[in-house]
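To make this tangible, we now present a fold written out as tokens:
***
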Amino acid sequence: AAKTIEEKIKVLEEMLAIMPKHKGTDKLRAELRSKIARLRKERVESRKGGKRGKSYHVKKQGAAQIALLGAPNSGKSSLLSALTNARPRISPSPYTTQEPMAGMVPFENISFQLVDLPPVTADFMRPWMNDIFRNADLVALVADLSTDEVLDGIEGPIQKLKEHDIVLVSRPPEEEEDINFDRIFKRCFILANKADSEGAKDRLEVVSDLYGDRFEIIPVSAITGEGLEELKKAIFRIADIIRIYTKAPGKKPDLTSPIILPKGSVVLDAAEEVHKDFVEKFRYARIWGPGRINGQSVSRTETLRDGDILEFHI
């Protein structure tokens, strides 16, 4: 895949050159030209060596990275503290969080990375946060059930990310009606926080009525711990991942360090995670797992399930 600005420009120019010219491709050709123009502008600015604003990168760890999105005082930092060993600064004053802070959420034999971020409103988001939301595997939109402004606290961040071509969805569409090379669809769920507060139940009903058909909604309380265990299970489910284990012939599998793969992965995907030689020299694999005929030989295209154990033969 193209990584540098030069490589991206070259790929897009090649696409534009081979694309047939007719009415049906006019919009796509315009998008390509617009993208090329933006990249050329970036190239000029980078060559000038001009100063760039503050930026952060949170290296991914664990089975999935979840970015916390929410309005001021929605309780993002409290959730990070309740779910992980991280100790963010927590204050009733808005905008206490100024930089990203990550912590690991344990779940069974894996963990998820939770990233706390400064608040986002309909009017403001720090520019460097755009890259973090784009890079995350999931976005958890934290809603504050303790306030009557809860709907603004949901819709504002949704619209602000949309302005940056990040569209929050429960599941990305298989096809787009109109192609936009800058736009990405990011899987999201709503964390209805402060479920222990007065009036929270009624506000949760309103949130569910308005957003329940768009996002999964998980009521939680960072203070009482309500819903936090259910949240961990939900993250695993929403992330659409599976855990695969390996074993050497004649030996027991190591069930403490699974290979994490997307749902729908096949045996060859697991082999590639172990070692590239396994892909080139692969003959067959034996498989054990729930609903399997234990020890059965399978081909490289066998679809894997969570909990499968593989023994590679090369």
About this structure: The chain has a mean pLDDT of 88.
